[in-house]
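Tokenised fold entry reproduced for everyone:
>
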Amino acid sequence: MDIALFSPSSIFVDSDDHSSGSDDVTENYVERNHSFPGMEITIREFSFHQLNANLLWPGTFAFAEWMIQHKPWIEGKRVIELGSGTGALAIFLRKSLQLDITTSDYDDQEIEENIAYNCKINGLISALPHIRHTWGETFPNSQPDWDLIIASDILLYVKQYPNLIRTICFLLESFTSKPHVDTSLSGRGANSGVPCPVFLMSWRRRIGKEDETLFFQGCNDAGLEVQHLGSRVYCIKPKTDESS
């Protein structure tokens, strides 16, 4: 896993209209209030974390707004988030839509403990289920039953694209449907009826066009179909006979 050689938090601290700092600042953490659709959430962020799990990125807020606009697509789904970082998006979805959601991130105890802390300070009775998983390695759950996989702003490390795609493929191709699971994401308009399992990803951070193309081409080579749903939200799913 590549690591960041600097703290990127300074990029957004004063320019992010969604966030405001609190007085609770320590050497290793800072707590900030973040505005999500219909609510404000307090998130403890690392002042610096070598795996970039330290703060909220722009795609988090954009994706939250998009999902609220497309609630019929995700309500009642069993969800796992890749690259949860601080856990802010998952906490918002649990509080606003009562989603059955599991967080996941790199195999790192500090990340897991910080997500649990953020769950507590935002009034969740118990911490969200969490899976420590390094992309590309054997997934802890051999029979995944999440019919919806989500992520936002996770395409930072180009060298990790093959490992990320390997994990996405496993979750999609090893999906085991349960009797209560609806196998379609019901919505209105042209994008209604997206089949499950599916990976929904929001990407707002700026990377080179070549790097972005590299990820989507990797998905295609791995047998995955990529569809842009608008607002830089992408639907990634296994190819069917018709689309291959």
Observations:
- Residues 143 and 235 are 22 Å apart (CA to CA).
- Confidence is low (pLDDT under 50) at residues 1-17, 22-26, 186-193.
